[in-house]
C-alpha cells in the first residue's frame, strides 16, 4: 500500500475509533443511573463540557508539537467525553430512530466527503465563510436556549446541517492536500480524523434533533 492510501487509511481508521468510542460510552453511561445522576443532576456536566472544550483547543493548536501518544490519548479522551454528553440523547430518542439517523448521517457524510476529495473546485476560500456561519449559529443557539422557540430551533438545525455538510467537503479537501503533500504522520492523521469526527457528530446531532422520534 502506498503512502497516499496509507494516510487515508489512518484518517478513517481513527475516525472509526472515535465514533465507536463515542457511541459505546454514550450507551454505557445511559444505562448507569449513578453516572447519569452525577453528570446531569450535579455539576459534572459543566466539568465535562469544559474538559471537552479544553481538549478541542489543545488538539487543534498543539497537534503538530505533541507526541504521538499524547495525540492519541487526547483524541480518544475527547471522543469518550463526547459520548458522555450525548448519552442523554439515548434517553430522549427511540433507539430505532437513533440508528436510522446514524445511517442517514453516514450516507450524507460519505457523499460529501467524496465530493470534497474529488472536486476540482478550491474550497479553501470558503473557510472564513464557514467559520463565520458556525460562530453565528452557536451564538443564535445560545440565545434560543433562553427563548425556547421551536420554530427558531428547527431553522437553526437546518442551517447547522448545511454548515456541517459544507465543512465535510472542506475538511476532506484539506486532508487530500495533506496527503498530496506526502505527509503521513500519525498526528496529522489524527488531526484529519478529529476534523471529520466533529463534522460527523454535529451533523448527526442536527439530523437527530430534526428527524428523530422521541420516546413516549
Salient structural properties:
216 residues, globular, single chain, 0% strand, mainly alpha
How many H/I helical runs?
8
Please give the share of residues in helix. over 70%
- What is the terminal separation in angstroms? 51 Å
Order of helices and strands: HHHHHHHH
Q: Hey, roughly how much beta strand do the residues contain?
A: under 5%
Class from helix and strand fractions: mainly alpha
How many strands, what sense, and barrel or not for the largest sheet?
A: none
Your description of this structure?
By secondary structure, the protein is mostly helical. Helix content is 84%, strand content 0%. It contains 8 helices and no strands. The chain has helices at 3-30, 33-40, 44-62, 68-92, 95-118, 127-147, 150-180, 186-211. Helix 1 (3-30) crosses helix 4 (68-92) and helix 1 packs across helix 8 (186-211). The chain is globular. The termini are far apart. The mean pLDDT is 90.
Please outline what is shown here.
This protein has helices at 3-30, 33-40, 44-62, 68-92, 95-118, 127-147, 150-180, 186-211.
Helix-strand blueprint:
Elements: H1 3-30, H2 33-40, H3 44-62, H4 68-92, H5 95-118, H6 127-147, H7 150-180, H8 186-211
Helix pairs in contact: 1-4, 1-7, 1-8, 3-4, 4-8, 5-7, 5-8, 6-7, 7-8
Amino acid at each position: 500500500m502506498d503512502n497516499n492510501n496509507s494516510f487515508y487509511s489512518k484518517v478513517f481508521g481513527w475516525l472509526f475509533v472515535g465514533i465507536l468510542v463515542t457511541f459505546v460510552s454514550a450507551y454505557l453511561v445511559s444505562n448507569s443511573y449513578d453516572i447519569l445522576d452525577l453528570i446531569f443532576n450535579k455539576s459534572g456536566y459543566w466539568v465535562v463540557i469544559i474538559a471537552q472544550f479544553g481538549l478541542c483547543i489543545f488538539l487543534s493548536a498543539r497537534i503538530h508539537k505533541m507526541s504521538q501518544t499524547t495525540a492519541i490519548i487526547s483524541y480518544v479522551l475527547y471522543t469518550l467525553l463526547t459520548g458522555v454528553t450525548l448519552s442523554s440523547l439515548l434517553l430522549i430518542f427511540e433507539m430505532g430512530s437513533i440508528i436510522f439517523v446514524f445511517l442517514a448521517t453516514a450516507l450524507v457524510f460519505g457523499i460529501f466527503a467524496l465530493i470534497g476529495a474529488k472536486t476540482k473546485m478550491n474550497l479553501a476560500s470558503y473557510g472564513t465563510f464557514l467559520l463565520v456561519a458556525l460562530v453565528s449559529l452557536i451564538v443564535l443557539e445560545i440565545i434560543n436556549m433562553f427563548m425556547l422557540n421551536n420554530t427558531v430551533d428547527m431553522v437553526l438545525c437546518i442551517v447547522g446541517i448545511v454548515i456541517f455538510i459544507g465543512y465535510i467537503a472542506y475538511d476532506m479537501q484539506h486532508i487530500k492536500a495533506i496527503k498530496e503533500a506526502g505527509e503521513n504522520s500519525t498526528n496529522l492523521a489524527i488531526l484529519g480524523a478529529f476534523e471529520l469526527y466533529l463534522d460527523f457528530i454535529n451533523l448527526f446531532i442536527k439530523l437527530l434533533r430534526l428527524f428523530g422520534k422521541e420516546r413516549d
